[in-house]
Amino acid sequence: MVGALVFAATLYLRVRGISTHFWMLWDQIRDWGIALGPFSDLPLVGPPTHFRGYTIGPAFYWILWAIRVTVGPWFDNLPHAGGIGQAALQSAADTLLLAAVWRRTQSVWIALLTVTLLATSAYDLCLAPLVWNPVMGSILAKIATALVLLEWHERSLGRLAAITAIGWSAVHAYTGAVYVALAVFAAMVIQPLWERKWSSGGRRAAVIAVVVALLQLPYLVHRVASRDDMPAMGVVTGSLGQVLSGAAEPRLGLSMAGYRNAFSFIQGFPDRVPFAGEVLIAAAAIVAVRFRRDPMLLTILLVPQALAVLGYAVFQGGLDHYYYLSLMPAAVLTIVLGITAVPAALRPTIAGVALVAVLTQVPGRLAHSATLHKMPEYAPLVEGSRRAARQSLPLRGIETEFTLPSPSDVMFIYRILGGQSDPASPWVARIKSNGDVEYRRVD
Asked: What CA–CA distances, in Å, run from 341 to 279, 289, 320, 328, 344?
């Protein structure tokens, strides 16, 4: 019952108003346009990156295509259907994490506190309903993390393989999820190694290696078939090459500051988290001592954060906040689990008080999220495109009374709804701010 309420509430918060303000820029147009095609036409690699190259596998497009097939028809296959499907996956991941933390801590309050902090983040709320591969990567990373916390992989090698596939698919979707994926793999192997069960650990490692290799077959086919010389994960190879050649130095201080600033921004209330770096370090120290006999938990929480700091120290570009989305479950849970350092009798009270304090900040977080990554022009664009498409009049183009954010495509919605375009047509439609359409003849 609690899980169902969490799913419904978080999904509502994420998709409310999406049909009127969906953020439809070039990434969303490109990727939803690909998902509208048949499965056989999907790329064998992931989306291109702004650092040249592309992600190393097609999992993002596979999932987006599945969303288009299942959710799209309910919303005329318009791009906000992809946002609704992606938000539903995010809420499902939160519900799974709730169950995992609840079982792990035996406290529903600690579990609710964790999910509330994550799901009501203003930045998370505004990005969750977008058709965007970094968000998909963070969703898959969260699912893999939750399944490891549930110890789902302990029941069979088949389940371990499934978690591996989910974790590596997160890297397919977004390269920055690699730190969580590697921590997930290590967490599934470390327990038998800790107990000196070498054969069991070896079998798990072998399964992980095989699954990752199988998931890279589409990429290999792409490289052979297309003879593409564009580097996969070019941002990684480029920065690493610069450091190894001596052309650039690792920037550990900058990386640490980048992580601190990203955590402070993403998890703000909506203001920045004060002393974010000190809070993270103190919480990590408490958790390391408190759970020193639980190597699996320490690995899934602390290793991805440490790997990210080290990895982005090599990276030679600027550090944006969204690079760290997939790390937020580990960071938030590290802080929340600091509560378990107090006597057991006080934990429910402290967790309950903290939950109430966070809930009082939710209205501010919601208001803040409403100012981020919204496109109010989407509603009149959809309404006007729908009316123009119903006229069955081929159009040379569409103009708007309002200005669309750049880069966008004013004809994209019209074509999805079945509208016909013809460069030789003498007619141009003009969509007004209320969704009405005017036509003018161009000789």
From this structure: 15, 9, 33, 21, 8
- Check residue 146 and give its pLDDT: 98
What angle do helix axes 59-70 and 157-173 make, rounded to 10 degrees?
A: 90
Question: Is residue 85 included in any domain, yes or no?
Answer: yes
CA distance 303 to 332: 14
Structural domain span for residue 152: 2-246+343-369
* 65 close to 31: Cβ distance less than 8 angstroms: no
Q: What is the pLDDT of residues 212-271, one digit of tens each?
A: 999 999 999 998 887 766 666 655 666 666 666 666 677 888 999 999 999 999 988 566
CB-based contact 212:164 (threshold 8 Å): yes
Same domain, 353 and 416: no
- The encoded tokens of residue 168 equal 């590596």
Q: What is the mean pLDDT of the chain?
A: 91
Torsion of CA 325, 329, 331, 333, to 10 degrees: 170
Whether 144 maps to a domain, the answer reads yes
Which amino acid makes up residue 161?
A
Which segments of 216-346 does DSSP mark as H helices, in order?
217-226, 234-245, 252-266, 276-290, 295-314, 328-336
Q: Cis omega (within 30 of 0) on the bond before 48?
A: no
Tens of pLDDT, residue by residue over 34-75, are 999 999 999 999 998 876 678 999 999 999 999 999 999 999
Pairing of strands 397-400, 427-431: parallel
Asked whether residue 85 falls in the same domain as residue 32, the answer is yes
- 272 is a domain residue: no
Q: Are residues 352 and 437 in the same domain?
A: no
How is the beta sheet containing 397-400 ordered, strand by strand?
Answer: 397-400, 427-431, 437-441
Write the DSSP string, 253-281: HHHHHHHHHHHHHHT-SSSPPTTHHHHHH
64 φ, ψ to 5°? -65, -40
- Band (pLDDT 50/70/90 cuts) for residue 371 is confident
Report percent pLDDT > 90 for the chain. 73
pLDDT per residue as tens digits for the range 265-303? 998 856 677 777 888 999 999 999 999 999 999 999 999
Q: Domain count for the chain, please give it.
A: 2
> Measured at the alpha carbon of residue 105, what is the angle toward residues 300 and 8, in degrees to the nearest 5?
85
- Whether residue 353 lies inside any domain: the answer is yes
The verdict on 105 and 170 lying in the same domain is: yes
